[in-house]
């Protein structure tokens, strides 16, 4: 392999001790999702281009595939890499509807690709973890509560990460409020209001008047709605105080109030749930509940966990499969954290023990010790060469492996190289303390 | 989403109960690799095209990337999807050499892509599981033994799959033998001998004479070598009986004999290790040990687990990083097995319990039971609607969930819907039998 090796911008790669952190995040998510009855699936990395381009606003970011010696430059049979896991999942449900049981709960942890400009938290290749519940014809609202609770449960379990603020809203609430105000182009108003997290309120107000054609009083009430926030159902009274009435608004208020109160028992100092009436999820396909999530200390990255209710994403013309889901940007959370906080595994390898090697001829004896330890699920490795024991200990030390096992004619001993304590040990019974068995997660700052 | 949904040839997708089988394979591999001290990494899906095309024979199979609105049709900055995990890993080692500890053991389970014609066991998108050990400057031979033993250990643990026959050989043995016979173009001879598994011996002999320019006696001895097989070191005597002498041949014989005898204690009825002197791994970069593996009953698919020693794959000009590795084609094994044997999970969801719902108003009480069960790592779900209990039981049955939990004023009861047995239960103490806790793997034929 030639030289000239350099990283590709937007395609982050991790060192083994960093990958361990990402793997722990994924394992924790998967464990939580399975506890809640979600089945894991994967979809292929590619979709037909016409499926990928249905959401016009992301079309420019799609990666097309072409085989090297293919005649056409139009892409291999019109295939592109998926840019999220929702569009492929909707296609999977339609393709396999006859073989699935509904309501269908699935989780999916996979890579996705977008050709956009790389920046912190935005990558061209990234891992997402999605949960969705799909019904056939109908999907009761309690499933909106369910996916929220599952994600809050998962985020609570990721206790080595900073805190999360889950912001929830409801499209019916917004649309009903706008309809009650007599606004005809609600989508355009929503698009402008979406800019509140980037532009000053005054600027957004001007845009509502000039671009969306609202009168000043209506614009003020629209902005009044968008500034309401509450961690309980007190937002209902705040909305009512704005004096707008509409059936759809009532429906949205009731749903959002139920969502917030149903999560109250799971909320912690680290993971909060907040009704935030500015959240609208732009041009997406959502029809009810919408989610965004901010990572404490990384608010400038925007939402790292988003989703909502979509009643019409998957339909084969005869049957509609309404769904609700939420998607955590694993890379968006993990990669910036690794870089900024030095989050890392306590060791670079899974091994908890290095079995020392007295001389090359006694390798089978050392291997037998390793074999006995592995039979009891203790990860270990045999020293690569029969160097002086001091060097073998330093070999373990450099990898962060806490124990070294010595064989001698008198019997076996194991040394905790952190404390220096060395005790007699039998490979068929010795067990390391539970906290040493696997690497744990720490930050370099804490370590020093 | 419009209609017109159909599978893409060469991009297999699995139903949840099938994905569970694949996930079990991957989890078992990962667990085994970690027990042996291998650290997990992932590399990006894309590599610069000049890296991917170094192995000329696969160049036609590479998928190029291009962004939708990109000017150039030449591919996005010359990027393509990786077609294996070895080339990216060699690049990763060079890129991160200063941050890694050697010998570096890593495993990597990821998708790869090749644009070749799909057939059973050959897909355009597939999952591979690789282990490799990389040294700096040198890598002693005992690591060849190590990767073999790790993979044999892993295959032994995949006890729901058919048996495996690991075929090992050594390039030094072949090259030394050819050199001892005075053959100058060993690569060409090796290429012809590689056809022995597809063509009759007589045909290969003609090709050796006509295409590779050997005389008849030499061709006979080349074929004599290629037909030697043994499950112990008796192959050494068989090679010696062919009367060829060369230093490199002796080195290869010694290494191969050590490899075969060092695995003797791990060999089982299901997983055998055999010296097969016809194995050469074609045009690959191997320099010593080579592996191929046949899946019992699926021999026509060819090798499903291959690899070997590569002394010169990764080099930055100053330092060389010799390595040895082996790669299991997870999709190549799992996808045909699912199709042919109906291998599947005992249930379609992780849940072991459905908590029944008396009426919609008592959903919080049912959720509280589920919460208590999950707190003790028991996967469960609450029934989606308060249908008659008979229907809720059938809901569980259709998913293969073995238990239904009932709440009543008198207390809680749990029913094993297979036996009909129903007993009093407390959600803070009840635990299902260990064999029910997670789905297990079965085949549809066994089930019926």
Automatic annotation (TrEMBL), chains A, B:
GO function terms (MF aspect): histidine-tRNA ligase activity
Region (Disordered): 417-448
EC number: 6.1.1.21
Domain Aminoacyl-transfer RNA synthetases class-II family profile, chain residue ranges per copy: 103-350
Gene3D superfamilies on file: Anticodon-binding domain, Bira Bifunctional Protein, Domain 2
NCBIfam families: hisS
Key words of the record: Aminoacyl-tRNA synthetase, ATP-binding, Cytoplasm, Ligase, Nucleotide-binding, Protein biosynthesis
Name by which UniProt lists this protein: Histidine--tRNA ligase
Top-level taxon in the UniProt lineage: Bacteria
Lineage, highest ranks first: Bacteria, Bacillati, Actinomycetota, Actinomycetes, Propionibacteriales
Catalytic activities: tRNA(His) + L-histidine + ATP = L-histidyl-tRNA(His) + AMP + diphosphate + H(+)
Pfam family, one: HGTP_anticodon
CDD domains referenced in this protein's UniProt entry, alphabetically: HisRS-like_core
Family named by the database record: Belongs to the class-II aminoacyl-tRNA synthetase family.
Keyword Aminoacyl-tRNA synthetase annotated: yes
